[in-house]
Amino acid sequence: MKGGGAYINIGSSSSSINSSVSGSGSGSGNGNGSKMTLGKSVKMYLTIFIATTCIYMVLYQYHMSREPFSPSEIGKPPLYIITPTYRRPEQLAELTRLGYTLKHVANLLWLVIEDANKTNPLVAHTLDRIGVPYEYMVAPMPEKYKQTKKAKPRGVSNRNRGLEYLRQHATEGVLYFADDDNTYDISIFEQMRYISKVGMWPVGLVTKTGVSSPIIRNGKLDGYYDGWIGGRKYPVDMAGFAVNVKFLRQRPHAQMPFKPGYEEDGFLRSLAPLANDEIDLLADECRDILTWHTQTKKNPPAQALNKTRYSNTNLEHIDKLLVRP
Fold this sequence. Notes:
alpha/beta, 3-stranded antiparallel beta sheet, 16% strand
């Protein structure tokens, strides 16, 4: 509509210029009118030029901010990031933080899987806004585990749903379980791309030891350092390992058990046979920390908005963006 209006103005101005020129010898009044019309036309053209330039610059800056990865980066082995999530006040904030980390990683598919019976439009909107390629699914915890008064196996149904998706849709690449409340150095994603079977590395801020890590002696895996061993063969944190997709597909029954505290160990055991010398040791042979088991402060649900007092204000819109359990 704006473009059409500009053409109409330009055309009428041109007509004015032509009629003024053709009648230029009829008197000084026509001469002044011609100069005034010409001046208006010049101003209009300058306005259009400046506006077009500004629009171009805005579009250019937008394009640069979303500049695609180079062909060499896109050709790298794909990564499949499986992120369990559940409804809570911090949910959108944590997905946003993780999402903008993943946005720096090329050739990646983010599998966001919620412990719910149906998807949440707020989550879908957040994922759309971030712009990372994603699949958003649901995988509710089985009812028998919800009813228990003991520790609940959180995130297990979500992660197993992600494994099911990969068996159906992926043939190569690497899968990684990335919880939305952790912190990641993006270099770990580039390192894990080339894992042949299973890769491991240290995770900071875990238990009383402050770190959970494989023990490397003379360049070989020689055990595990963790604040709680608990009889586990693989006492590692969820953020401290990744698995090659082809290797997973060769083990069609591998999955995560519904056993609180033993999810990682049970999943890695289900990948047997797996020898220690088949495990790739990342993060400078486990001498660096590139992932941290951070935890966000828990917040109480937001109180209900007084819609009588705050009707017809911006608070009515903001209130719709708050996640309440």
